[in-house]
Every structure is written in C-alpha cells, then in structure tokens.
Amino acid sequence: MMKFSIRNILSLTLFSVVILTIVYCGDNSPKEAIIEKTTSENVYLNHSDSAKYVGMGQCKLCHQDIYNSYIETGMGKSFDHASKEKSSAKFSEHTVIYDKFQDFYYHPFWDKDSLKILEFRMKGKDTIYKRIEKVDYIIGSGHHTNSHIYNTNGYLHQMPMTYYTQKQKWDFPPGFENGFNTRFSRKIGLECMSCHNSLPDFAQGSENKFNALPEGVSCERCHGPGSIHIEQRSTGAKIDTSKYIDYSIVNPGKLSIDLQFDVCQRCHLQGNTVLKEGKSFFDFKPGMKLSDYMTTFLPRYKNADDEFIMASHADRLKQSKCFINSYKEETDKSSLRPYKNSLTCVTCHNPHVSVKTTGKEIFNTACKNCHSATTKNGLCSEKETVRAKVKNNCVSCHMPNSGSIDIPHVSVHDHYIRKPMKKEEVQKVKEFIGLYAINEKNPSNYTKAKAYIQQYDKFEYKAEYLDSAAFYLSDKTKADVERNFELLIHLNFIKLEYAKVIGYLNQIGGYEKFKQTFSRVSIDNGNAWTAYRIGESYYNLGDFSSALSFFKIATDLAPLNPEFKNKYAATLMGLKKHDEAIAILNAIINENPNYVPALNNLGYVNLVSGNATKAEEFYKRALKLDPDYESLLMNVAGLKIYQKKYREAEEILKQVLKKNPKQEQAKMVLSQLKGLK
Asked: Hey, what domains does the chain have and what are their CATH numbers?
C-alpha cells in the first residue's frame, strides 16, 4: 500500500475677470452681485472644492417641471432598487437559460416583492445543485436592457441574467457568453457606477464595495455641485441668464462645443479609460476638460467603419462630416452660446426629455437646419420614391438602426452620419490598426502603454497588445525603470516573467525603497496592486517570506480587497503561521461571507491543523456557492482521503479531470488511490 502526505493534494488559493453687475432679485429691487464673465476659459464657482452635491430633491424645489420629465429619461431611470415597477422584464415559469459550457441553468422569478435568480444543475431529471440569490438593484432604463446586481454587505456583483427589452428576451449579460460565465462573481466597481449612478459613496480600499448608492443619475452630474447655486438663490438674488452666465452652476448649453461634448462623452464615450495620475472617476465636473482627468481609447480597425460599440455616440458623431464642417465654420465665440450653430449632442437631444416621447420630426428639423432649399448644403439628393419608403425620415438612411458589437440583442442608431453604405462597401475582414485616444490628441507614451495593458487585462487576451505596451515602455536606464515602474511590473506580471518583476524591484532599491515610494492610498488601489503583483511574483518563485512583506503592504493600502487578504493568509499558511492565517480568513468571511477562496482556505488550514470537522463545514459552505472551484474540489478530495473515504475522493478527482483533463495533481492522486483499494 502506497503512503503519501495529505499535503500532496491540499491546495492554497491563493481665474477670470470679476465684473460688478446689476441683477434681478426676489423683491424686484436692484442689488449688486458678483458675476464672473470671461472671454476665454470660464471659471465656475461650483468647481471649487467647497462646492457640495445636494441631491435632486433640492433641484426639484425650483425646477419641478424639469424634474418630472427628467426622472422618466434613461439617465433618470438608470439605477434603482429591484422592484416590479423598475423591472421592464417579462416573467414566466418557463423562462430558463442554459450555459452549455458550464452546465448551469438560470431562472428568474418573483418571490412576493423580491426578484431572485435561481442557478441550478440537472443530472437526468434530478436537481443536483441549486443556488438562489436575491436581486438588489436593476441597472438600465429598460429602453435597451435591465441588468441585475446583488449586494453582499456593500460588495456589488453582476448576476448572470440580463433582460433585453427590444427582443423581450432573457439571456446572459455581455461578456458572460461562450464559456465566460463568471456566475455571481463579476465585480461592479467605481468605473461602472460612475456612469450608471449619481454619486455613490465608494468604500476606499475596495474594488467594489459601496457604503451608499443613490438612485438614477442626478441633475448634478451634468450641472455640477449645486450648493453654491442654492446659497446664492436663497438670498433672493437672481441672474438674468439672457444677458449673463450664472457661474454658480454649469449650464452645458452655454459651454464651448468641446466642453459640451466632454459633459456628454464622460459616459457616452465608453471604452478603455486611463485615469490621469491621482485622479478618480468622480473628479471631473461639467465645464472642466475631460482630458485633464482621463483619456479614453477605442480600438481602430481597417475596413470596419460599419462597426461600433453601444456607448460610442460621441466618437461616431465626431467622425461625421456634418459635425466636422459645422465645427470648422462656427465663428461666433462671444455670445452666451458660443457654438450655437454647431452640431452637438443637444442639437437633437433634450437631456431633460425621454427619447421615447421625442417625436422623430425633431430630428428631421435638426437636419433641415443645414439641408434645405435655402442652405448651401441643399436638399436630400435621394429619389423621392426612396425617401417615401422611409417616410422622409433622415435618420433611417443616414443614421441606420443596427446592432452594436458589444451588446447582444440590442439595436441603436449609428451616430456616424453619412450616406448609406452599399453592400459591396461593407468589409468582412478587418485589420487592427491600434488604440486611438478619442478625447486627447497627444497622449503620453506612458498613457498609451497603460491603455494597451488594460486592453489585454479587461477586454481581449491578445499578445499584440502586450507587444505594443512594451514598445512604449523603456527600461534602458534606472530613470526609465523608476518612471515606468508600475507598468513594467504589471506588464511582466501578466507575461508570467516573475524574475523580471523582482529584477525591476531591485533596480529601484528593493523593499525599503518601494515602501517609501509606493505607499499612496488611492481609489484605484494602484500602489496596492503593484505591491500585490510583486508579492505574487515572489510567491511563485517560492520566496514566501518576501511575498508576505508585499502582501502586507497591499492589504494595508487596500484593506477591503478580499483577494489581497486571502493571498496574505495563504502565504502565512505556507509559512505554517496557521493561527494568524485563520484570524485574517475569518475577518474576510465576516466582511464578505460569500467569498469562496477564503472559505476554501479556512477548510484547508483547519484540516492541516487536525480539525477535520471544522474543515468539512467550511468546504460545504464553499461548495454551495461554487461546486466547480478546482482548488476547493482538490481540497475536498484531500479531506475524503483523510477520512479514508477513498471512493468519494476518486469521484471528486474524476470530476476535476472532466473539467480540466490537464490537472496533473489530480491524475497523480487518482493513480495513488488505486493502490489504496
């Protein structure tokens, strides 16, 4: 009979000119007020750090009609608690979607007033696994989709079911298809919520924890903080906005065309966004230059003019000759509406009114302002018979309704205004050109490199992105390494070049220098992630002591990231510091009870400490949440061997190998089990 250590199978988871002006006051008597007025960059009082957000309830007090119409728009309805009123979905007891890659079924249903998602697995006619999670929030106005979020102690995750309104169909969310179903573990972080929510209270030191979540997108997202505006109006003073700009609050319609676009494209230009150093997704305020806070990149392809992503309205519009020509021709830069004759988002869209209630004639009128018998651009040149087929609707031909490449079951108008493409002009083979910065003309090499790394990390695992990142990152001198350090660490970590990661660390001065230099607490946890990647590199090279030091830095900088803490605990376990590891793992579970890797490691550390009963409890909790987690299954097999339940261990190992035929450890242990029968 063969003997082997149970440790062979157990796994670790590891400003401006100020002018005095007479303004109108509440008692109709003239009073003096300070009005800021410039002929260059306008300076708004609510850009000051002293300006506070007050919420839509305050706006409603003076702007009731606008408020009533706005809350019915897509922005106003973008985010809310899950309720029957909020949901646009149709439900049936037969509504089931199936993931053939992972063998899970999903079924949405109402349990009284609670919306829930059932995940289950069948073997023949028997249900062999099920998990039910309550939907806490619905994202999306229902115009295109409803996506579903569940909340565990403030940690937000996307659920594996989306309702596609236009097709009246339940299906997987974008990115969950074709074997990439992350079930209930996709994090909903600040970048996501910064467009779908007003001003959430983000828990710094986390990736996806929020202390509070307002409903919808508030007025202040487009107008800026309202406290100073309210303070001024509370005195009874009013500004004649037909003559002067009210600098206590931003009116996007009175911004320059570039700043106008920045307000809209903050969210309607989605892509690969690189934040400027020290900036967050909420630092930008209307009236500021978006490029001072972030740069958004989109991949460009040759022969792919007909393809676009859902939230690319600004990018597509800017490629249109209608926009380019109106932008060039605009000369009136001295009025309160400096670009009033140019084509902007608000030429066609009133952000205070739902597109569902906007008649199509409004859009035709916008076109006819430039294309009519009295304008140099002339009337539509298409035959009257062709125009009649689309009821003379300009948008039907020149902004065709088509599907985006990133969101299934959804059709939107392409905002690239142009003559209709002929079938022979639509190319089937597209060639990647590179990432293009949409809102900044000349981004730095550092920014470009970061964009390519993010493109690989977040969107597509293509080696060419890493090659491009390396092209923009120099490491020839110590100064180069110091300047590009965090990106060099990230890039080589992705490439599994762990020795190179440590080499760069040594070049800047090792642990002590790192601790002195990279100790900034930030919303994006940048320094924390760099520490974590160095720790992982040491861990994979077998240097647990050094790894522990960097995992400690990571957890100190981002204490609400369970991934960092779990790896810190796993390293302690590797160093046989079991009591310390248990304390950290328990803290993770108290904070986030559904975090499977920590439950798995609690099972492991209890088993190697001789407490098989406690280990089994944690393993059972973890299996209820994730029955396919490979490390967990290997550890459960180890437990069964410890209990001399060899047949059960064998079945579990076969389950592992069915999912992953290349799992060598499972093969080895399964072979050893044959000698124990």
From this structure: 79-212 (no CATH), 251-434 (no CATH), 458-674 (1.25.40.10)
pLDDT in tens, 234-257: 988 888 888 888 999 999 988 888
pTM of structure: 0.89
The stretches of 360-424 forming alpha helices (DSSP H) are 360-368, 384-389, 394-398
- Token pair, residue 601, equals 């490691």
| b (16+ CB within 10 A) / e for 409-443 | bbebbbbbbbeeeeeeeeeeeeeeeebebbbbeeb
- Dig out the tokens for 273 from the structure: 């966004």
Which residue, among 218, 247, 267, has the nearest Cα to 60 in the 3D structure?
218
In the block, residue with structure tokens 């903050």: 266
Q: Does residue 435 come out as left (phi exceeding 0), alpha (psi in the -120 to 50 range) or beta?
A: beta
As a whole number of angstroms, the distance between CA 529 and CA 497 comes to 16
The per-residue pLDDT for range 84-115, each reduced to its tens digit, is: 999 999 999 899 999 999 999 999 999 999 99
Helix axes 526-540, 562-574, angle to 10 degrees: 30
Which tokens sit at 344? 């902007």
HEC letters along 138-162: EECCCCCEEEEEEEECCEEEEEEEE
